[in-house]
Amino acid sequence: MNFETLRAALADVVAIPVTPFAEDGRVDSAAHRALLRRLLDGGVRTLTPNGNTGEFYALTPEERRAITEATVAEAAGRAVVLVGVGHDVPTAVEAARHARDTGAHMVMVHQPVHPYVSESGWVDYHRAIAEAVPELGVVPYIRNPLLSGARLAELGAACPNVVGVKYAVPDASRFAGFARDAGLDRFVWVAGLAEPYAPSYFSAGATGFTSGLVNVAPALSLEMLEALRAGDYGTAMKVWERIRRFEELRAANGSADNVTVVKEALAALGLCRRDIRPPSRELPEDERSEVATIVGGWPI
């Protein structure tokens, strides 16, 4: 695929699939592939294996490779695959090259996990990964509110394969300024905080958004996207109202149950087990019943 095709794939619902676990704690490969097929059959055209909703940091390197391979196999020309990579530079580069060799189209670079991140070091980190896989599109995942748009512009000037940005700082005004400082038209801007922030971020220049909710109800995510593309913010906000409580549960306590709530919804639908790895936790009983009630009112 050329970079324009990849840019178009980011201007969409960018699904972050969950990683289901079996009773013995291992990745449930059959359930994983069934959930991927459900997303594809539901109209999803961009998949991000090894994202945060997929519990990236709780997976072993071998598990991450297997998840990448399964996702590419299931996508099979039906979707663009954007693989999450991260950790230290050699580990991220190795994962990016594996994604390329497996047949993926892009990599999303997780926010560097380090207590000391300088702006120039941020550029160097992403540049090392992007230059290792010039054939792939590269999408930085930005969660750092201190990073300046000028630094992203510097990275983009050095690496033409940096085609988009997953921006996940919860501040629509800051996003608007950051995007313009970096180059509003140079990158595809993906609202990285999913449906709750998509309307405000679209108004400031985003053209796609990530989603964990889409694992549960693809129709709702796609309905919001269609409305936002049409500039119909009234309809988009009606979808926002329907998902509001679900997303509030995910965001509570610093997003402690972000993935847990999605898996609980899938468990309520009988699609996978609710099991989740530490440091996340399973929901208490009262919240389980609330999630089931919410999901029961959605178009599934």
From TrEMBL:
Keywords of the record: Lyase
Pfam family, one: DHDPS
InterPro entries: Aldolase_TIM, DapA-like
Similarity comment: family membership: Belongs to the DapA family.
Protein name, entry field: Dihydrodipicolinate synthase family protein
